């Protein structure tokens, strides 16, 4: 009986001393942790990149809105609804797969001096585009403003000029899991002073709204 059990005991001793499968067992323990770290890192990275792109979109919109206009250097430039709609369409193309106007909302505001209140400012006109529901905290009052924007970083208009104020609200699309992203709603703002002399009060015959944006036949305004 002892001789018959000898091979079994020998096999058990070899099995107890074997270390060939240790790395596989250890890997099985570490794999979930590695996956969690890798996927959460990918989610946070994607969120940061998306937020940076939204921030750059806001900045480019403000910059382009400050440049648009028709006219020569010898006269005040005018802007019309086509200019603004082209501006918004370009932002949507720049956003690409972010699907800006389905998952977000863009608001462009013209901050100008308030003639009825010396030293104060007003939002003369606004144009918006996007399906997302977003209530701007900066335009509840549109006249007699000390500035527009978050406290401590409010923007104002230059004398006889305007400043373009842009808000972009966007709902983030998670790459892996919603719970791993810092948040879903992001809002980025930017402003630029209008470079050239802009006609802020065109003739009423071509500007029925009286807000400084020329109407164009057949062109629907992107009103808010």
TrEMBL record:
> Membrane-spanning residues where?
21-42
Name the keywords, alphabetized: Membrane, Transmembrane, Transmembrane helix
The protein here is known as Tight adherence protein TadE
User: Which source organism?
Assistant: Sphingomonas spermidinifaciens
């Amino acid at each position: 009986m002892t001789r018959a059990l000898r091979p079994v005991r020998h096999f058990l001793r070899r099995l107890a001393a074997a270390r060939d499968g240790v790395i596989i067992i250890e890997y099985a323990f570490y794999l979930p942790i590695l996956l969690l770290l890798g996927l959460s890192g990918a989610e946070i990275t994607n969120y940061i990149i998306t937020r940076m792109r939204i921030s750059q979109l806001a900045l480019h919109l403000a910059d382009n809105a400050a440049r648009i206009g028709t006219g020569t250097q010898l006269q005040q430039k005018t802007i019309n609804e086509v200019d603004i709609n082209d501006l918004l369409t370009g932002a949507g193309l720049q956003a690409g797969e972010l699907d800006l106007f389905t998952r977000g909302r863009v608001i462009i505001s013209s901050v100008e001096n308030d003639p009825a209140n010396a030293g104060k400012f007003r939002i003369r006109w606004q144009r918006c585009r996007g399906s997302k529901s977003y209530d701007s905290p900066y335009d509840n009052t549109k006249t007699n403003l000390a500035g527009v924007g978050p406290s401590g970083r409010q923007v104002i208009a230059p004398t006889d000029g305007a400043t373009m104020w842009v808000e972009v609200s966007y709902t983030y699309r998670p790459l892996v899991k919603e719970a791993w992203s810092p948040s879903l709603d992001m809002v980025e703002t930017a402003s630029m002073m209008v470079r050239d002399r802009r006609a802020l009060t065109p003739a009423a015959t071509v500007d029925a709204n009286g807000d400084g944006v020329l109407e164009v036949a057949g062109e629907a305004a992107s009103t808010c």
